[in-house]
Amino acid sequence: MNNTPLLRVEQVCIDLTTAGSPVTFTAVAEATQIARASLYRNKQLRAVIDEHRARQTNARTLTGLATEVAHLRTIVETLATAVTAHEERLRRLTPRH
Which pLDDT belongs to residue 25? Predict the structure, then answer.
């Protein structure tokens, strides 16, 4: 099983929400054993936590939906950057005929 920080953070956020507990950076840091500062600095981890927090507080308000879209945009941009980097590596590894 892949136990990356991203998956751990996602699972803890789901667990907190399911238990009816607030999703906070402190609670996630304690449960994942990842420093709170690291959760704030890492764009992906922060986006996951912020998304779950927004869902709890602004479930279906226009502000909540706008916040969710902004977080999803950040995640997509991060993934696009990673895909581009992997494509570049593949181009360098693939022999040209």
Answer: 95
Per-residue pLDDT, 64:
66
**Separation between Cα atoms, residue 52 and residue 16, nearest integer Å:** 10
Q: Give the torsion sign (CA, 3, 9, 55, 78).
A: negative
Is 0.85 surpassed by the pTM of this model?
A: no
- Backbone φ and ψ for 23, nearest 5 degrees, come out as -85, 110
- Is residue 21 within 8 Å of 5, Cβ to Cβ? no
What's at 49, amino acid-wise? I
Burial class (CB within 10 angstroms; exposed 0-12, middle 13-18, buried 19+) of 95: exposed
